[in-house]
Amino acid sequence: MNVQPKARDTRAARPLAGRVSLVTGSTSGIGLGIARALAEAGSEVVLNGLGTASEIATTKDQIEADYGIKVSYSAADMTRPEAIAEMIAAVIAGHGQLDVLVNNAGIQYVAPLDQFPVEKWDAILSINLSSAFHTIRLALPAMRQNKFGRIINIASAHGLVGSPFKAAYVAAKHGIVGLTKVAALETAEEGITCNAICPGYVYTPLVEAQIDGQARAHGISRDQVIHDVLLAQQPNKRFATVEELGALTVFLASDAAVSITGIALPVDGGWTAH
Question: Percent of the chain scored above 90 by pLDDT?
């Protein structure tokens, strides 16, 4: 007897088909990895972040060609609430809905607390925390209207623990975890979830540059920098990858995660298990 193979379950293969996702800070690094994962899962994607017009156009075209979905771009400055409002309005006008919001935009600065530049504190709090408040408050009406929403905040292991010399970053990421809990509680009966992903060190081009810089500065090997400096707090002694974070984001955005809300999920190789 010949048994015909079952047709591929397209919903399983592309669990976010028909969805629209906005990822802030998504023209490189973690954000771009997440945007690509959402596109592969079938979602239309709106990119946001820095870069030249040609670089952004190339990235947009590549994602469209690779996954056959609509990709658009917003140059919104995440320090300006009015620019964020214009971005959210443009997403809804251009795509008809906003289903998945990933708050990934962020910057970093390292200095002792008593020497921390006030302008750096203000900039980090603005981009790393306040921008997420503005995107969430502006996206919620459309999500409530559609009775569906997935808000995923890219926090950090530093949203759960502290480190010296990172006052603004640690404060902002702790704030993101708190904001996540409040949004989850306020939307719990409305088909909307809000969760935070808390990565440790993730391998990106910026981290690669940091490895080389540390090796030169300390006169040690790349392996020593990775094992003894960058990953000193990560028991598994390996970087997470943007693909891992993308896959987790897709899961949290999917119907399978409908009962998961208000959590801060470490992806840190055991860092916060200490």
Answer: 89
Q: Which of 67, 73, 109, 169 is catalytic?
A: 169
Q: CATH 3.40.50.720 residue ranges in the chain?
A: 17-202+241-267
Contact 88, 139 (CB under 8 A): yes
State the chain's mean pLDDT as an integer: 94
Between CA 121 and CA 200 the distance in angstroms is 21
| Cβ atoms 5, 23 nearer than 8 A | no
Q: What CATH class does 17-202+241-267 carry? A: alpha beta
Contact between 225 and 215 (Cβ < 8 Å): yes
Residue range 69-85: mean pLDDT, rounded: 98
Known catalytic residue at 169? yes
Each residue's pLDDT tens digit, 187-199: 999 999 999 999 9
Q: What are the pLDDT digits (tens) for 84-116?
A: 999 999 999 999 999 999 999 999 999 999 999
Q: Mean pLDDT, to the nearest integer, of 138-163?
A: 97
